[in-house]
Give the backbone structure.
Amino acid sequence: MTAPAIRLTALSKHFGAVHAVVDVDLQIDRGEVVALLGPNGAGKSTTLDLALGLSHPSTGTAHLFGGDPRAAIVDGRVGAMLQGGALLPDLTVAQTVALVASVHRAPLPVDEALERAGIRDLAARRVSKLSGGQLQRARFAVAVVSDPELLILDEPTAAMDVESRRDFWLSMRQFTAEGRTVVFATHYLDEADFFADRIVILGAGRVVADGTPAEVKSVVSGRMIRFEVDSGETDAAAAGIPQLPGIRSLDRRTDRFTLVTDDSDLTLRALLAAVPTARDIEITAHTMDDAFLALTAEAPLPHFTKAPHLTKAPHLTKAV
Ligand SMILES: Nc1ncnc2c1ncn2[C@@H]1O[C@H](COP(=O)(O)OP(=O)(O)O)[C@@H](O)[C@H]1O
Ligand SMILES: [Mg+2]
């Protein structure tokens, strides 16, 4: 059996009192394209640094291809693009890529690395003259020049505008079409959905969800129904609502209720029958951002309840 590209086992990292990564178990098989999704401070960069052996875990282990991450890196099997990784300002783009190529055993030709990053036309440009998006592409060329099997990218499109982001992910498809493994951190939900086969959501250093984009979106999709009831009837309404069909969660602030439902038509008909005094009814799409916030909230709202089928998807887990 071949070892997975990445295996993190009971991995934790704290910086003094800050628990950046907490008991993460994660296996990423060869050929997978995985998004590590989470808000700022969720522990994405720390997790990737640990996976690359750039930082030592407080407890637990990180392996690449079944061994020490540094061995895989020395062998040129891993390319990385990290947050804030600096390039020498006075070199040209081609010189930069050639310098990195020179330390690897079987690098790509420099031209090909530039081509893959879509910056062949910038070969002679000095690094100090590059725009933010161009600099990201130059860093991508550096990451791929060793012709790695595994690419680890920390927020690779951070400085790019919408169009450059799309171009970047389209050019990445060429890399993954060849069966290579990609793990990238992002806080853009749409980017994870567009490019990854699997989305691992980190919240406060823990894995809070892990599934295909479709599974993650099944948690995330649905509609919200908001309404009010007369203050004398709130308790009766609160008792009856969880039994209505389609309901996934219920949030109550005094006499204002918010439901998330899989089927707003069905729920609304039943709601009007069960709670005839419901008024000021609003129905809105439950966005990926709403679900993301709910999943990654450090402590769920006291009256935010989740129906059991929220966690029905095979790999979808909710940390408690
Ligand atoms: N070198 C460090 N020293 C102290 N705290 C750190 C250090 N690196 C990261 N942290 C903290 O660990 C947490 C996770 O950070 P990070 O992994 O960078 O998150 P993300 O990449 O998801 O934004 C944050 O609270 C951050 O402030
Ligand atoms: Mg980060």
Observations:
- DSSP finds eleven helices and 14 strands in the chain.
- Residues 118 and 137 are 7 Å apart (CA to CA).
